[in-house]
């Protein structure tokens, strides 16, 4: 479970302070699917970067609560020896790296595929790093995403939509407990966007993976259990 508490984030631009996130609170339970909509520049990607421990808030906490496993600092709750709680905003670089490798799948707006290795090697990176290589699961994922015939190509030999599907497969290859997806179907046409976003939500449900998805599409957002809107730094449920 992730609990965002009183998150505050601002940027200084030309000497002026711009508040991007203002007292944001949110709870993400295992298996939850959450969409975040909002105007361009409203802070959606900023929020995902904080959840991925790629950036730090000015203040507030992001508490990661899990049972029994260690990931960085250990703050045991009194009376519950099974539960460990970590504030990911306090992670060192090394702890943040481990958190991203083992706990998080990331699908970026610009895919971030590695151009000099094949599609399959890109997809398998998180699975290999975490030692969680499930061949049948990967085969089914590739089939469902319709990219099985492209696995030996290089990413730049694929269309934008195909690269997006590869990025989705890579985000899910290690079956992470949390998937953060920034406009995961933004490069797909309407029909493919529907198919792929449904697959994304269904796969996360099957794996009990929490999904936080930024989208500009109301239709895609409607597939998630909870729909939130970011406006003026405030997050409100639709
Ligand atoms: N490193 C930075 N330094 C200064 N300003 C930044 C920085 N990163 C983001 N911003 C500003 O913060 C605001 C929020 O950016 P963010 O990328 O989170 O928006 P977004 O809602 O994801 O937008 P979009 O839908 O266009 O992707 C923007 O005005 C952006 O210019």
From TrEMBL:
It comes from the Bacteria. PROSITE patterns: ABC_TRANSPORTER_1, ABC_TRANSPORTER_2. Coiled coil: none annotated. One of its GO terms (molecular function) is ATP binding. The keyword Mitochondrion does not apply. Keywords: ATP-binding, Nucleotide-binding, Transport. This is ABC transporter, nucleotide binding/ATPase protein. Pfam families: ABC_tran. Belongs to the ABC transporter superfamily. Residues 2-238 form the ABC transporter domain.
């Amino acid at each position: 479970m992730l609990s965002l508490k009183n998150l505050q984030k601002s940027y200084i631009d030309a000497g002026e302070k711009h508040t991007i996130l203002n007292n944001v609170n949110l709870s993400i339970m295992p298996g939850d699917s959450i969409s975040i909509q909002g105007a361009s520049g409203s802070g959606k990607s900023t929020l995902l970067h904080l959840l991925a421990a790629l950036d730090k808030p000015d203040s507030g906490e992001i508490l990661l609560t899990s049972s029994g496993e260690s990931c960085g600092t250990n703050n045991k709750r009194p009376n519950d020896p099974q539960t460990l709680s970590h504030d990911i905003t306090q992670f060192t670089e090394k702890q943040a790296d481990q958190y991203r490798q083992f706990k998080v799948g990331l699908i970026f707006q610009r895919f971030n595929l590695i151009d000099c290795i094949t599609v399959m090697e890109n997809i398998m990176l998180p699975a290999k790093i975490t030692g969680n290589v499930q061949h049948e699961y990967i085969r089914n994922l590739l089939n469902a995403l319709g990219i099985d015939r492209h696995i030996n190509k290089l990413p730049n030999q694929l269309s934008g939509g195909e690269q997006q599907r590869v990025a989705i497969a890579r985000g899910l290859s290690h079956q992470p407990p949390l998937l953060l997806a920034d406009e995961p179907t933004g490069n797909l046409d309407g029909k493919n966007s529907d198919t792929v976003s449904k697959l994304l939500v269904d796969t996360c449900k099957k794996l009990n993976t929490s999904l936080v998805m930024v989208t500009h599409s109301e239709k895609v957002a409607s597939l998630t259990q909870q729909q939130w809107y970011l406006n003026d730094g405030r997050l409100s449920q639709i």
